[in-house]
Fold each of these.
Amino acid sequence: MNPPPKRISMEGLDLLCARRSAGAPMPAYVGPLRRHVAEGDRRLLRLEYDASPAALRLWSFLLTEEERLHAAHAAGAKIVGAMKDLGTVPVMAYALPNVVAFYPDGAWWTPCVMELSDGLFCIAQSLGFGESFCPVRAMLGAFVNRAHFPIPDILICSAGAVCDDFSAIAQRVESLGHPILWWEMPHRRRPEPDEPAVELPGGFSAPASQAAFVRSELERVRAALEGLAGAPLGDAELAAGIAEANRVRRLLADLRRLAYTAEACPMPALEMLIAEMLAIHFCSDRAESIRVLADLLEEVRRRVKEKVGIVAKDAARVFWVNPVADLRVMNLLEDSGGRLAGTEFLFSHALDPIPEDLPPMEALARMALADPMAGPSADRAARIVRDARAFGAEAVLVSRIPGASHCALEGAVIARVVREELAIPVVEIEVPPVADPMMPTLRSQLEALVETVQERRKR
Amino acid sequence: MTGTRVTTVVYSSPFVPAEWIAAHGARPKRFRPDAAAAARSAAPVAGMCPYARALAGEAMALRDGQVAVFATTCDQMRRAAEWAALETPAPVFLFNVPATHGTPAAARLYRDELHRLGHFLVRLGAGDPARKKLADVMESYDARRRELRDALGILTPREASEAIAAFDRDGSPPTQAAHGSLPHGVPVAVVGGPLMRGDARVFDRIEEAGGAVVLDGTESGARTIPAPFDRRRLRDDPVLELVDAYFGGIPDVFRRPDEALVAWLGRELASSGARAVVLWRYVWCDLWAAWVARLKELARLPVLDLDVSGDEGADRRTANRIQAFLEVLR
């Protein structure tokens, strides 16, 4: 029998793990989280987790990614370091045999998970990347100390309409002797009235010429991947890869729809954040990510059917914008009387289904162009409005990323559009990688938002 | 704009060719924004580049017949363009300058953007130039730019910076002989982002502190003056020549990879004899902030990281920091 839905400590999750170990077989990577604490992941002690075997599997899958990457490397697999595009290059890479792709960008959570004991920020600082840069500067440290992910066999980074922090940090990585294949992501613009246009996943449109340009850039990526793998990456292989990626996306779509619309919130915000992240590069194992998400979806379906949730049914329904550098802040939402009712973690293009009725490279180009970072903030705001409306959100929270070049103006545009279109409260917070000293302030901000929502319900 | 024909195109990016605008019959005005205009933008202060804010503020003061062109050369600038477009009735054009280079696709994208800018101007009442007209305009600019280049060597650093600014504003080369004396002191290179209106006084500050500016490598300096045109190719395919001179030739910090800037700095710092570098950058500018450490490594010279806020009192702070930096070097 499944435990009742609630959040539990790491010790509680490890107890659940011990009980499961004695019962049904589990994937080899599933284990107690304390083993990761022993390796330095101290933040795990401060988080609260969904009390379910599905969540245990999710966390174990996430936290064993570096082991998986090293094992794949040792076994002779080619490792692709995709950078910045968040979702496109891995779809291509996983269509090839014996190729594993991941985002070194993901190191941005390492200082949080290791509560700064990793030293990555110190290394970045020594190379000229201090606190004025986004926490993704941790990636630079990881390339230098080689204590986290294996150095990829190839680095492929999008440039152009990207954030300046990342572009500058990636350039620094290259200056340290890690060659990068740069490909251009143009600033997505709205088509002129008389200009041929294409529809993008997610509902926006772009000039057909921009899609053709991105397609030509992705052809360069395709050639590089073929060279790396020593195998052709034909349209048939790409189509199969897209179909598999879409399996992940469909699972996530179902999961999000249920989790964000159910009357009783069936899954905590923290697990939803982690689950959504799987879409980007499948946590380095596409097949297993599908099973992990299927498990989580089954758990959510059961809870929705039983009408049970992890917070009170009257919790304020909050739409969350941008990923947080400190995972603990996701717990804080529920601690403050809120729950997730939609998200936009900067990679909605990695969640929308990739068109399967188009030539694969065209489909991938359109997906890449749909990146919310590549287009105007007003487009991103419009998407947030649409999704917030669909999920029944009662407030929008914009979580600024410290130092990020896009956040200052983007947050202002999003707040303005949301207020105009939805007339719901918007709050902006800023979350550093270890937010403990700011927790009282953040909590006050979240509680004030929840109170505002509750007051509005009385009107 | 209320149906008035476009007369003036204001912009600040060196990647927007003045010749292209002039050939369409509008006045190109590359300008240095006034720091005080930032307040008019009403854009957030925290996290936003003061230069981008100032530019957005300037765009909000455009009059009928004036249009603004921003370039996508940094994240802050493309977002500032969006902000300005939301706040002003004046037409705003965002020119997509590719970050990558050395590929046919990147050059083609830049060329396509030139044509898109042309169509934008034509829709606003500008003329659509024939090839000969464009070539003639380019030849004229090339000749005047040659005069400008020749004059730079005999002007003081501040005069040279102001001569470039004047040329950018109206296309006129310096008309007067140099009247200032060339500085003597610790040879200093100034490299970094663009200057705002009046910022050329930083050259005076350096000289007052005992330095001599031997290289202006800011975005507003000689680094971003396009290369001379090839006369024959200019007649054969003037647009291609524009692409080569601007997109193919100007080294800048946003380009990926940034090898052209590395090469330019290596060459120019060595030939200038600079003994120290002042890095001029705006707060929240990640692209130039990332260069502080790299400059130290590449140039192996002392580097002053001059983070400029553009607010009241900034000049005094700048002067103090330059003074302290040069005291150590003297």
Note: Residues 65-236 of chain A form one domain.
Amino acid sequence: MQPNAPASQSQTASPNPWSSLPGYGPALVLLILAIPLGLLVGFFYGAAALILAAFSFITARQVLQQKARAEQQTAQSGELLLQSQKLAAIGELSAGIAHEINNPLAIIRQEAEWLLQLSRKESSPDLEEIKNCLTEIVRQVDRSREITQNLLNFARRRQPVVQAVDLTRLIEDMTLLVEKEALNRHITINKQFQPDLPVIFSDSPLLRQLLLNLLNNAIQAVGQDGTVTIITRVVADKQVMIQINDTGCGISKEHLTRLFDPFFTTKPPGKGTGLGLSICHGIVERLGGGISVASEVGKGSSFTIKLPQALAPQEI
Amino acid sequence: MDNFRILIVDDEDDFREAVIKRLRARKLDVEGADSGPQALERLSEQDFDVIVLDVKMPGMDGIETLREIKLKKPLVEVIMLTGHASVESGIQGMQLGAFDYVMKPVALDDLMDKLRQARERRAIQMEHGR
């Protein structure tokens, strides 16, 4: 991320003289009035008017120059804001990881301190309690490993392995995995697959991850009693489109812009790490495609993925 | 890659042996393991191309075993076996590098298809010298 030169530098150097006319207004008025004043009232008044005009002119000039500089700074800080937002996103990522790992660490500490206390007791130690503490510690370590493993997976830049993929079958398989959950929640999964969808050349496990994440999100968004619709179609430019629509809670406009950020989640703390959609975004990029989302709060959301029919093996 | 070696990992003895028998009938080189630790032991003794791994096992479960397999032999393809559809373990498994999922009861043709695709993927990856 290199700093870019501020975009709007052009017009701030020398302001359009006509636009700054209001600034010089008082000076001009005094200038014009100086001569008639001098003639009518007296020389000193005329001279005074001239001096005032001069001062007014200097002040106006300084004010206008300040204004120009301020405008330039605003443009620059606009760029900086964008960059700092990007850095903030990275900061958020680190903060996210730190927060996630702090929780199991805190519990490990508690258990360890309790074990220390137990070890200092005069009487013989309660083995059951010791076992409980240690079991909890092991559990929290596993939890931490999962967090770091998720992050590693997210950060891993593996080149996709290209194979012939029967997309319809792949989506059917992944739908089978979520079907039981959907049934329990009285959610209907509606499949509208293009019947003769051609075999595409892509990375199948990545596609599976992508679909599982999106289907899971759709089901979670609906909650209970609703529909998740999956549509596949060949689209122009040798691409296939997969669309997943849900009749769920929808996504607000502010959330939409941050939707694919790592660790962004609308779930309560402890439920979900927010890596799902950012993983999806990463996968779609690696597969040479694009993902877009449309949503209306209270109505539902629609995720559209476009993928090339053939991912060249060299592409990343 | 002529010798296509498969390892079936499942604590249900009847199920595991049945799958092994049917795959061997199709002329495949198949071994079995009844637990995660045993699977890892077999893996250290010989190379396998694809491992079919049950998600729910007592002790070291499928996800934990998958993690260990990917640490030891990252290029081995793993197909997860699930007795009941579980989205969480599905997502987890895929994120940890599982190639695909098969639901019990296993339709043998389905499994054969997936084994073939897994083998193909492994061949491509080995070609790339990774």
Note: Strands of chain B lie at 5-9, 29-33, 50-54, 77-82, 100-103.
Amino acid sequence: MLFKIAFRNILRNRRRSLMTGSAVAVGAMAMLVFGGYITYIFAAFETGLVQRIGHLTVFRSGYFVFGAGNPAGYGIDDYQDVMRVIAADPVLRPMIRVITPTQSLLGIAGNFSGGNNAAKTFLGTGVIPSNQQRMRQWDEYGVAPPEVPGPRLSDDAPQRGLIGGGMARILGLCQELKLENCPTPPPSRDATPAAPVDQNLTALAQSELGSGDVKNATMPQLDLLSATANGAPNVVTLEVAGVAVQGVKELDDNYVAMPLQLAQQLVYGRGEHKATGIVLQLVRSEDLRAARARLQTLIAQRHLDLEVRDFAELTPFYVQVVRLFSAIFLFITLIMGVIVLFAVVNTMTMNVMERTNEIGTIRAMGVRRNGIRLQFVTEGWMLGAIAATVGVILAFIVEAVINHAGLTWLPPGNASSVPFRLATPAEHPPLLIGTWLALVLLATVAALLPANRAARLPVVDALRHV
Amino acid sequence: MSEAAAPVVRLQHVVKTYHAGAVDVAAIRDISLDIPAHRFSMIVGPSGSGKTTLLNLIGCIDAATSGRIEVCGEDVGRLPDNALADFRARNIGFIFQAFSLVPVLSAYENIEYPLLLVGMPAAERRRRTLAMLDAVGLAAQARQRPNELSGGQKQRVAIARALVKQPTIVLADEPTANLDSTTGAAIIAMMHRMQAEQQTTFIFSTHDQQLISHSEETFAIRDGMLLAHDVPAAATTGAFA
Amino acid sequence: MRLAKPILLLLALIAPFPVLAQTPQEIVAAADKVRNPGQPFRATDTLTEYVAGRPRDQDQLVVYAKEDPGTHQFRNLVRYVEPPRDAGKMALFDKHDLWFYDPSSQASVRISPQQRLIGQASIGDVLTVNLVVDYNVTLLHDETITDADRQQRQCWHLDLKAATDTAIYNRVEYWVEKGSFHPVKAKFFSDSGRLLKILYYRGYREQLGSLRPGQAVIIDAVDSSLVTTIQFGDLRFQDIPETWFQRDFLPRLRAE
């Protein structure tokens, strides 16, 4: 009877119920759609990161805090042994999808060939190309965009590398790499007017070095200069296969990627070749905590001077993005919640007022105060439940429409546009259930105030009411 | 005639004062009376005399400022709110001037409602509700909502509702005020029938002369005081033909 | 940010030795003595940078050189004299650490190896490298080569490999003139095997008691448009206090 009366009263005040119900339904829909949006963003961002830098990286202790200034000083001793131990560990083995060493380095990239004289500091990484390729295929959430075709590193080409778009511009490689939107740098403004050329010196230099390099016809070459771990100047040749544009300008201006061996040759020279990082990409992100704990156990057991960092620590930007969007979501939730609260309180208050006489009647018939309270709370609860369900359905519809509309967007920090889609509520049950429950709860609580007032009405006063 | 039964309602020096803002209004000033069981009793008097207040006090939906009220032998002044509600649910039926049916419930459901409050099992509820509908001649209108019924039909539903739980007392406040005289007469006849069948005590508050003519005990009230208590000799009792 | 321009100047002057059958080590040692007189000394050097054959910058410096008695590394303190904007600036150099001091800010700044990869900061190593101490020497063969003045010279062609982890160059090819032990030419190679710099000594004349090079020509093999010449002048023996080679002492240094 309780539900019967509640439901019929909802239907009775059709317009009022519709208005309030709409507020709740729209609130549910907004939370689910936006929630789907940020779920997708988080998944896409995480996917991008995990593809590039894996889940966990093992470093020499102190590297994370101090290593940027001196990567050569933080090589991991016997890194291949460490990798073997990790890969063979029974707990870690099933979790690991790829394990690969990397070397960070910094130095100066110079384009000194054929009359060019451009130099730029660079921040580079040495990687194993085949492992890197495999890592790029990680896609636990199914949100990865299709791979962009383009120049790549290869295990078979130990001198071949990629540079950032800004780097290419600054080094004057626009034409050779056939890049679009790539202006050539202006000629260097040298203050001294044309002093006479010293022919003898020129002849001497040319006799030693030749008039210009015979270039490897296909790819432009750069000289990468760096100081080795022991402080000796070192230089290697990089064949530039092409450009890998980085989304962030600072990175794009400094980026060089090369095979691990080349990086090690440059950084360690005649010393022991090490690696600054051992990257682990897991099969599933859920294993991250367990894998990290296990790694730390292994490290402690063998008294190794190593530390472990995850991709969120290595990319503070990711954490910031997650926090920002979570805060926005919370903010929207609060606003929706307040609106729902007001709408329901308002509606239920009007209901109570209109049915004052009815309340008096059934109180006279013997309904207890609590019964009255329960009656109205139930109405609020039912309205919330129905409207929230409608909102959920609306969310499904909206997301289906958007996901099939073929939209794209440019995520911050990305180099190129990717397909835009929302994670549907089905993909994220906690969001769905949480939103529904929260709104129903809110509607119930909102009805409490007017229900209390109804319960406390003196019977005779209520009966006197028309 | 009626046997000498214990009074179903007994008031002793009952006073009821309202606080309307800064002013105190004495609605009932020291009334003592006994209402016998099983009879048509009527409380009569001009508007503002306190009839409705008296009825409310008897019906346990209001509390006296001072004095003692006994209903069905129970000192209702001492009962807490929930106990009072339960008491009403078991013992008292109400019929209002404005019918006061629950608008979203059908005639059947309105009549059934009080039975839910006393926790009656479904089969028994059904039996009684249908019987009541028949008794008031509304079997055909069982599914209809109050807004589809005429005034007379609504009042008949109200009567059925008041009586379906076979209460000890039925309190009716101006039950015929919104009805034309023909319908009113029919209603009165119906109530007589119920009284005869179930031995229910009817207590009316009214100034409808037609109704008053059926009174078996009349209590006249004026300005919150009891003026007179009559037992009309020519009262028409018993079942109607 | 302008890199420091340290000038390291190694002078070797030695009286001609009687030519005996020499081990490769002894050849290099003898050549080192031509570059370095073995006692603390000072010199006034003129350094000229050429870009694509045209002279661009010219600096005049006073260099104080002293060998470290323990490690036998050549240490140099350089004070800028010309041009006026650089006058008073100083650089302290010993094998690995380069400290640059600016009197206007009274700050000593360490220039890391990373910062000495290109430009003038990179040529100091070539002149101060201690070949005897840091390298294992092999004599390849006798060879006649053309020197910086387009003259033919009969030389020992030596191959030097780094003997320690901290030797700056992984390998050096060295041509020392037979008989006079004058270093004629050197090629310096990095750990990766790439040629970094080519050094010629020329203009030998009598200084500090021996024939010593009057000029060094350094050709940058990576940035092939860069050539630097250093004219060595006014060599004098001088007692140089140890404190001058301490970086904390730089602000208080009143040199002459």
Note: The CA atoms of residues 258 and 294 of chain A lie 31 Å apart.
